[in-house]
Amino acid sequence: MPDENTVPTSKVLIVDDEAIIADTLQAIFMQAHYEARTAGNVEEAIAIAEAWQPDLAIVDVIVPRMSGADLALLLKGLCPDIHVLFFSGKSVSSDLLDQVHRKNEEFELLVEPARPPELLHFASRLLHPGCEA
C-alpha cells in the first residue's frame, strides 16, 4: 500500500451504480493514500478514464447498459496499462472471467463482502506485482 510520502500516488477508478458502495470504496482508497474517483455509469467511467488515465479500475460486475466484462475491456482499450478488479456482491460464475480470457485479458475478481485490508491487498498486488508484503 502506498504511504503518504509516496509520490506519485496510484489512481483508482471505482465503477458502481450503487453510490453508497462507490463512495465507501472511494473513502477506503483515499484513507490509504490513493487518488480515487467514482463513476456511477458507463458514460462517466469512459469520460473519467479518458481524461484521468487511472492505474486501477474496480468495476462492478453488473453495470447498467453494458456488462462489467465489456466495460473492463473498453477501459483497457482506453488505458492500456490499467489493471482491472471486478467487485461484486453476487456470486459470479466463471463465465465472466472466461469472457475476458477469450479476449486475452486477465482480470481479478473479488466477491463482497470484502474487508478493507483484503481489498487494499488485492489492489496493491495488482499495482505493484512482486512487492508482496
Automatic annotation (TrEMBL):
The keyword Ribonucleoprotein does not apply. Signal peptide: none annotated. One of its GO terms (biological process) is phosphorelay signal transduction system. Keywords: Phosphoprotein. The keyword rRNA-binding does not apply. It comes from the Bacteria. The modification 4-aspartylphosphate is found at residue 60. Residues 11-127 form the Response regulatory domain. InterPro entries: Bact_response_regulator, CheY-like_superfamily, Sig_transdc_resp-reg_receiver. This is Response regulator.
